[in-house]
Each structure stands twice: as C-alpha cells, then as structure tokens.
Design goal:
Structural class: alpha+beta
Largest sheet: 8 strands, mixed
Low-confidence stretches: 1-18
Radius of gyration: 18 Å
Helix content: 10-25%
Order of helices and strands: HEEEEHEEEE
Shape: globular
C-alpha cells in the first residue's frame, strides 16, 4: 500500500513537472510587433512582415506570426528541454554570465516564426538578460521596438529555435565574450 501511494504521488508530480506556460497579457505595439507576458516570461512577437536580420533570406511565404498558442508551446519546450539541450553550458557561468537554464525567467524574449523547407513550424527565440535594458519610466526599451543584435556579451544574450511540429528545441547559440573588448 505504501509503495502504491508513493508511486501515485511520484506520477502526479511528474505530470506537474512542466508548468503550464500561458500568455496572460498581449498588446499590439505596432503593426510589426506585439508585446506578450506570462507568469514566467515576457517578450515581443514579430509579425510575418518583419524581416529578422538573422533570417533575412527567409521568403515572405515561409514566415508566420506566432500565435499565443505558438508562444505557449515554445515556452513549454524551453522549460522542459532547455537544461538537456544546454548540457555543455558553453560560454556560461562565472564571468561569462548566468547559466541560462537556471534563470530562464530573467530573460526577455523576441519571437519570430518561420516554416522550414519541409513544412515544419519553427519559432526562433532571441533571449536578452532583463537587467541590461534599464530605461527611464517613459522610454521604451530597444528590445520592444525591433530585433536586437548583440555581438559578444556571453550568456546574457542567446538564441534557440523551437520546432513546434516536432516538439523539440535546436540551434542553441550562446554569445561569446570578447575579453579584449574592455582593454
């Protein structure tokens, strides 16, 4: 009896292991982007008409505007799978910046949707450490206005792609840290 109760508790806990990631607020900020917020994340969703610098060669008919459901699915994948995808912890910890899967809620996101050549739906996610964007109360942070491109910066800036068709993450890229830049 004790074993069956323990197994039942373990089973229920495993079902609850991935917290539901829901968009609780969204607001169109322009025709090209919408602000979204959930309990553990916030970001900006770029429309299919926005050309992301990293994916500038993506044809217009292969881009889509991620929906709230798409963002929720991508966020669920981040929470569930980022730790295993990030096993090597490249350019993270110590002077390189935070270990990203240990503090996911400290990053704002920029979301961009595209369709692969094989028809798979992918959300490209660019993540930027929140504390690096302090502005006065009446000023809009750059990450809410358009794509932010950062060279270096360690794990304060990173990117990943969520394949919604396959329910998987791929293409994790952590910025390097140019130790000569401050000389």
């Amino acid at each position: 009896m004790k074993l069956s109760v323990s197994l039942m508790v373990l089973f229920v806990c495993s079902l609850c292991g991935v917290k539901a990631q829901k968009v609780s607020f969204s607001e169109a900020r322009s025709s090209s982007h919408t602000y979204v917020k959930g309990d553990d994340f916030e970001g900006v969703v770029f429309s299919k008409d926005f050309v992301l610098p990293f994916l500038a060669n993506q044809p217009a008919d292969k881009r889509f505007t991620p929906t709230a459901a798409d963002i929720e699915a991508a966020e669920k994948l981040l929470v569930k799978d980022l730790k295993s995808v990030n096993a090597s912890k490249l350019n993270q910890g110590g002077g390189n910046g935070p270990v990203i899967h240990e503090c996911l809620n400290r990053f704002v996101r920029q979301y961009y949707g595209y369709i692969t050549e094989t028809g798979e739906k992918v959300v490209y996610i660019s993540c930027l450490l929140k504390g690096n964007y302090r502005v006065s109360s009446n000023e809009t942070p750059n990450w809410l206005k358009g794509a932010v491109v950062v060279l270096n910066g360690g794990s304060n800036y990173w990117q990943i792609q969520a394949n919604l068709t396959k329910s998987s993450l791929f293409g994790l890229g952590i910025n390097s840290l140019d130790k000569t830049a401050s000389r």
